[in-house]
Structures are given as C-alpha cells and as structure tokens.
Amino acid sequence: MASAAIFSSLRRRRSPSLEAFLAPVDLSNAALLDTLRAISTDLLLSFSGKDKSPPYFQVKNSRSLIRKIQVISVLLDAFRDVGFSNISTTVFLCLKELYLLLYRSKILIDYVKGSSKLWLLLQNQSISGHFHDMNQEISTLLDVFPLSEIHLSEDVKEQVELLRKQSRKSKLFIDKNDDLLRLKLYSFLNEFENGRMPDRNQLYSFFVEKLGICNVKSYRDEIEFLEEQIVNHDGDIEPTASVLNGFVALMRYCRFLLFRFEDEDGELGKWKRRTTKKGLITREIADTFITIPKDFCCPISLDLMQDPVIVSTGQTYERAAIARWMEEGHSTCPKTGQMLVHTKLVPNRALRNLILQWCMANGIPYDPPENADYSSESAVSALPSKAAMEATKATAGLLVEHLANGTQEPRLWQPGRLDACAQENSVTAMLNLSIYDKNKSRIMDVEGCLGTIVGVLRYGHTTEARENAAATLFSLSAVHDYKKQIAQESGAVEALAGLLREGTARGKKDAVTALFNLSTHTENCARMIESGAITALVGALGCEGVSEEAAGALALIVRQPIGAEAVAKEEMAVAGLTGMMRCGTPRGKENAVAALLELCRGGGAAATERVLKAPALASLLQSLLFTGTKRARRKAASLARVFQRCENASLHFGGLGVGYAFAGNSAEPRDTSFAGDVGMPVSISVPVL
C-alpha cells in the first residue's frame, strides 16, 4: 500500500514523487540492486552517528522499522555476493516491489523526523497506523519472496526467516505515554475553551520539561509548523483548522508567559517585525498601502475588501461598509447614485478569490469571511474557536503588562536597558499579533490596551518602539469601527502627526499610513484638524516616500467642508499639491489633483483663487489629462472645467474675481465617490475619457 507517501503532501501540499508509487523502469539487474542498496543505506544512516538522533516521538515504531530495514540491507548485500545475473522473473518483480517499500519507508521516516513535536502528538494515532501498515507490507513481501531460488548463506536465511515471523506477529503500537501527553495538550485547550487560564507551573512542566520546548526559537518553530498546516488546510486533515488555530494561540501565550522577551539565544534582545517566510501570511504592514490594487478596495471604506458583495446596481462593496450605509437610511448606490431596487447582498466569490490569490502571492494578511454565505465544511472548520480567542486575549494582556507598566505619565517612562528592550519587544509582538484580522478585536477587547499602545507611541523608550506602536495603530485601524476609537484616544493623532514631522523614514511611513487610515472615517475630520495632523500632512507633501499617502489623506479630508477650510488655511498646501502634480508618482498625482478639486469646491473663494492661480496649473492639467491614471484624468477634467468657467465668468462679470465667478457656478454636480466619473469636455484639449 502507498499510504505513507501521503506524508510529503500533507506537509508541503504538493503531489508526492511518482517514485513513491511506480517501480523503476529500464534498469538493469545491477542498477536496480544499487538503487535498493542506496535507499536502505540512506535510511540506516539517518539513525546512526552522534548527530543523527531519533525523532522525539514515534521512537519505538521508528526503531522497529529501521531494524527491519537492517535485515533487508543484509539481504541486499548477499545478492552482491552470490551474483545477480541469472535471477528469475519472480525475484526481479519482488525486488521492484521492495523498491517501493523502501522508498515509502523513507518518506515516512523523513516526515516523522521533520515534523514538529506538537504535530507528532496531535497525529500520534494516525502516524502509528502508518507504521503498522509498513510492517504489514514487509510481512506480505517476505511471504512471497522466493528465497529458495537464491543461493544465500545459512546466516542470512536465518535472519530473513526471523524477520518474516516477527512481521507476521507485529501489531499496531500506540505509545501510551505519548497518547497521555496528547490528551494533556488538549486539556490546556479545554481550559481556555471553558474560560479558565491554565496553571503556569503545569504549562512549564509540560512544554519545557516533558516536550523539551525550552526556548523562544523552539516555540517559534512549533508555531510556524502549525501555521503551515493551517495555510495548507484543505479540509482533509485532523484536527481541523479551528483546533489548530487554538493550539497556535496556546503556543503564543506560553512563549510570552514562560520566556517573556528572550531572543533565540536565551538573551533579552530585540525582536523584529515579521516578514514573508515560507508563504505564510506575514509582511511589513506599512507596504500594503502602496501595493493594494484599486479594484480590490471598497469604494466606501477604501480598505482591502475581506468580504466583497454585489448590490443591485452591479457595484461591489465590502459587506460591512455597504450594510452600514444601508442601516444609515441610504437607498442609493454610493458609487453610481442609482436607486437600489433591493437590499440583497450577493457574495462576489470571483473577486474574493482574486484578492486571496493576490494576498498569498504578496504575503499580505488575509482572513476568510465568517458568515453564512461562504459556509462550507472547510470554511466552518477554519473559524476561530473560543479557546483561540481566549488564548489570544490572554497573550495581549501579557503584552500590555510589559508595554508601560500600566501608566502613561511621561515622568514614569524612565528608560532602563531591560525595560526599554522589553517595551520594544512587547509592542513589536503586539504588531505581529495584530496583523491577523481575527486578532484585532481580541486585542482591542483587552482593557487599557489601546491606551497603552498610544502611550508607547508618545513616550516610548526607543525610536523603534514608537514606530512599531504607530504601525500597530495602522494595523488595528483596518477595522472601520476602530478608526474613530483610535482617533478619540487621547494623544493618538497628535503623536502620529509628531512622528510624521520628526521621525525616521520608516517612522514617517508608519505614521502617514496610520493617518491615512484614520482619515477614511468621516467623523475623524475634526480630530485631524485640532491635533495638527493636517499641518503635518501638508509638510509631508515634499517628503520622498510619504508624499503619496499624505496627498491621499488630504484628498479625503478636504471632502468635508471643515476639512477643506482647514487645508485652505495652510499656506503651503496648494504649492505642495501642485508640486505633487508635477513630480509625483502616478498615484500621487492622482491624489493631488483630487485634493485640489475638492479644495476648490469646499475651501472657499480664497482657496479657489489660490488654486486657479497656481503657477503652470493649465499645463499640469493638460499633461495629466493625457498621461494620468483613469481617475486622475477624471479629476483633472473637472478641475479644468472649473478653471475654464472661472476665467470666462471673470471676464463676463468685469473682473469681479475668481471667487465670485466660482460662487456663481457652484451648482456643478459633485462626485459621490472617491472615484466618481466626470462627463463634459473642456477647452484645455481634454481627451476622450
């Protein structure tokens, strides 16, 4: 049987090598014998030598299989001694079958030695069954092997005959001690499931003393292995992804509970933000703003869609965003303005699959939606268990304890080497934890967590701690409901604005992406004004690396009258935005022209006049109309039309001024979305859009 060959695909989710199922072809007798001896030697060497230790679990089953391979190796050596030129067809076929048996044995042994300790415990009974299957195959092969046709020494015959008898008597062996450990592991998960915290001493005894998971690196290896099983989960692995999520959360909790912030060498060292590794869904999150395709973002929230749905007009939105729009009493499509003939939301599975593929290709965190529309056996099994949620909350609680010792007073944030390192590691761990969408709510549910993160942002001991606190706020603000909560937290927006003005290149990036996210919530505009964030964003227009995002945030803010008025008061706003139109990236130019258009519409007469009198505006619009993105061309066409009307009206009214002319034409239709369409051609050679 070929069941053992499945093990390679279980871990790497790829088809096993055909060599595991097909006997070699076009091999001479001697070549086949050499191949058999090479495989058996490789198997034996994997258990010999000082650096070749047996696996932590399945020790007895592994050694039993290796002892059988040793006897088979003796048989193969005997073939070399007696000659191999005139063997019968039956013997040759048996040797081909032996090739399959040895190769599958190697797959099974390699899998056991390469798996994590927790995975071996969880799969204890299943893997034991595979070893028993291999014993049965050896027994069957020896029963049909025509030893009488081969001139073997009596010693070799006795060894083979003894192996044949032992194989016939072999029974399924499941190590009772290993199985008790497996049940104990589940008991810790049940503690969290029932709302109780496992005892610290018991956790230490189990993981450190019994399993030998005794440092940060070993915990990280265990977590990454289990995460790999979850990512590759196709609904055909036990335990389910939901249970595996629980064990991942349990291991994270134990890592921080038992070892605090030691590095992989057992010293208190710096931790790093997670980066893409082995296809897992991790990446430095500040990069996500730049790389997300526009079609993958919700037109309402501007965030990457997790659960895209189609409304009656055919437009796609994030489910939570469009549901909130309807709950507020709107009966039109936000993007087109058309009436919604019904409120049914149809899942856009095709788009969701495209988003999922893009996220996996780029290492962007992406969690499946948790609603009935996507229900299937595999999807339901992947939902987070209560144990996973409780363990994650407990982990967040541990991290909060180390962020600031429960205070935000600047005078108490006195840096000591150990305190500073622990604080930095805590906020870095919080950032890595928050990357996964399912963890965001568990972090925000921990009392005092948000305030403590903001405290690190304001008074953190190290630059990296403050930067990672800003990145954590950006990560948490991906959830729409948290954007207002974060903005209302005392000192949060002020600290982000300060980091944008005075931080390092990475700090500025973290700050501007967080401010952009907060700007997407309409109720945050007043906080952005009073906190000085607008001044910081305007100043960032000339800063390479963050100007694009700064222009995007301003384009959102000026859509509200109070925001437009505030931006209009900034002396360098128009110059900075026109500078972006001249030298910025395609996305930056798009954001800049959108901001200038909204500034004309809501910033008052003085702002309009300043925009329209900006040096070389006409030529910039001309260039953008031909070379800009689709959205940039639409915005440029609208601004060019304003420019043309104001010039004509100024002449008509005898030089009463641009402001008067614009005020007299304020009935121009306004885009209802961040990517609205524009219709009329203007005199500045507007191309067909």
Largest beta-sheet details: 3 strands, antiparallel
**Mass-distribution shape:** elongated
> Which residues sit in consecutive blocks of at least 5 with pLDDT less than 50?
1-21, 265-269, 275-290, 371-383, 406-415, 651-689
Count the strands? 3
- How far apart the termini lie comes to 65 Å
What is the helical fraction, as a range of percent? 55-70%
In DSSP terms, counting alpha (H) and pi (I) runs of 4 or more, how many helices?
33
The main sheet orders its strands as 2-1-3
Q: What structural class do the secondary elements suggest? A: mainly alpha
* Average pLDDT level: 78
Q: Quaternary arrangement of the chains shown?
A: single chain
Rounded to the nearest angstrom, the radius of gyration is 33 Å
GO molecular function: ubiquitin protein ligase activity
Keywords: Repeat, Transferase, Ubl conjugation pathway
Catalytic activity: S-ubiquitinyl-[E2 ubiquitin-conjugating enzyme]-L-cysteine + [acceptor protein]-L-lysine = [E2 ubiquitin-conjugating enzyme]-L-cysteine + N(6)-ubiquitinyl-[acceptor protein]-L-lysine
Protein name: RING-type E3 ubiquitin transferase
